[in-house]
Amino acid sequence: MINISHLKKTRYIPRKIPTDVSGLMFVDGKPQISRDRESKMSKKLWGGRFTSDTNEMVNTFNSSIHFDKRLWREDIQGSIAYCKMLGKQGIISDDEAKKILSALQEIYSEIEKGTFIFDESSEDIHTLIEKVLIHKTGTLGEMIHTGRSRNDQIALDTRLFIKNSTENILQLIRKFQLSLIELAEKNQDLIMPGYTHLQRAQPVLLAHHLLAYYEMTKRDTQRYEEALKRTNVLPLGSAALAGTTFNIDREFLANELNLQRITANSMDAVSDRDFMLEFIFISAILMMHLSRLCEELIIWSTQEFDFIEISDSFATGSSIMPQKKNPDIPELIRGKTGRVYGHLISLLTTMKGLPLTYNKDMQEDKEPLFDTVDTVEKSLSIFSLLLREIDFKKENLKKATESGYLVATDLADYLVTKGMTFRKAHHIVGDMILSAQKKNKELHQLDLYEMKHFSSLIENDVYGWLDPASCIERRDIKGGTGPKEVKKALRKA
Fold first, then answer.
1. DSSP element (H, E) containing 234
2. Is pLDDT at 5 greater than 80 in this prediction?
3. Beta-sheet pairing, 30-33 with 191-196
4. Is residue 197 among the annotated active site residues?
5. Residue 27 above 70 pLDDT?
6. Which among 17, 29, 93, 321 is least surrounded, fewest beta carbons within 10 Å?
7. Is 426 a catalytic residue?
8. Torsion of CA 249, 254, 255, 260, to 10 degrees
9. What are 121-142's pLDDT values in tens digits?
10. Helix (H) or strand (E) holding 390
11. What gap in Å lies between CA 248 and CA 461, rounded to an integer?
12. Which residues pair with 205 in a beta bridge?
């Protein structure tokens, strides 16, 4: 384990010595920084220009190590590539590069094993890793930052983090889709009411309903993949804002880090957070899709609908009402969607008034990003498991499709096939429904005499149009709920 306790900050107490200017003492008539203060400020990577210690509250308020330490992997990965490039370009010697690389790999291994101490007094993860590198290699470690700024370093780290997170989320989406497809296949012959305005509208296959969410998440996948093209861009070489005077090989760095392009403008490179906003925006859409399915599962599990039974292992009870079985997981995912929406608005608000280039406001980008990643990954993971623990109540679904006049549109279509215009057929079927409601009957329960009262075109063959199953079979159009098309869609999915 690395002992870096000597790197931790201690409260600065100035010596009681005569001074003519605050923070300075005079030796042979010349102003000098006190040795204590010089030692103290030298612990700051940027401390050379400063003559007084930073207020302890400023240190705490300014620090991001407690959350940006999550970027340790990407930070070391970027530094390893950068060190290789420095050696390749002769900016440092091969021997110096090898020693620095060995120390960076050692730090990486220590963090992975859990033996590394994250010194919370450090300003950020970038500063901490560089401090430890210097502790391990001496002045060699001070070379790693040649031609590099924390501005382009941070931009790189967040791009690599989003790249890695996106690839993981894409895998989780595929697992979610697989659970969805398996649930649809298991119940592909079940018919249920389709709804508009939460009112029963037309009969559909349950599998068709579930595959609608497959299509939604397929678009989410496409959006993430498309956004990756704008994320996989190298900002290193931009330095603080104007580029660097050193002969940096940016193409080599991009290749080492498996990034597709390099940034075209150094000022844009260090101040751009579009790639992060886009990631959170896409994540917000994905969470919205998950939330819509959650809402349906919550409704379907009510006694009023009673379409599904969620496994006891994915439900909870009430502390006071013994009969309760609550769909907490869908409710939580539905609730967590708001978190991601909030993160998107938060970052948009942070960025909206910033002049070029880097501003400290942008430190506020990481917590929304990290929580978005965590929320999406956890929601997808548990949802994939939940879908495998749902049973549909066949009899209740069947009863629901047989009431509510779901076949009304088909009856209008029947009249159109007999030569009537659709608008007139629509009006006649509306009159028939009004009459049936007064008699407390469904359309298929009306006898032929009652139907002919509304139109002489109606014959005995009408009853073949009033069966929910036949309604579905007639919709074997591409993208429709017909059984053959749904089977094709399942196979394709």
1. strand 233-234
2. no
3. unpaired
4. yes
5. no
6. 29
7. no
8. -140
9. 899 999 999 999 999 999 999 9
10. strand 390-392
11. 81
12. 191
Amino acid at 70: R
Q: Which amino acid is at 98?
A: K
**214-234 average pLDDT score:** 98
424-432 contact pairs (CB < 8 A, 24+): 428/454, 428/455
User: Are residues 209 and 202 in contact, defined by beta-carbon separation less than 8 angstroms?
Assistant: no
User: Which amino acid, residue 400?
Assistant: A
Rounded to 10 deg, the angle between the 274-300 and 206-231 helix axes is: 170
358 contacts 241 by C-beta, under 8 angstroms: yes
5, 6, 197, 313: the active-site residue: 197
Average pLDDT of span 233-237: 98
* Dist CA 330 CA 307 (whole Å): 15
| Range list of H helices, 232-301 | 250-256, 266-271, 274-300
Its pTM stands at 0.87
> Whole-angstrom Cα distance, residue 38 to residue 128?
20
Per the rule left: phi > 0, alpha: psi between -120 and 50, beta: everything else, 200 is beta
Q: What pLDDT, on a 0 to 100 scale, did the predictor assign at position 60? A: 81
Q: What is the pLDDT of residue 9?
A: 35
3-state secondary structure of 196: strand
CA atoms of 175 and 380, how far apart (whole Å): 8
Whether cis (ω within 30° of 0) applies to the bond prior to 357 is: yes
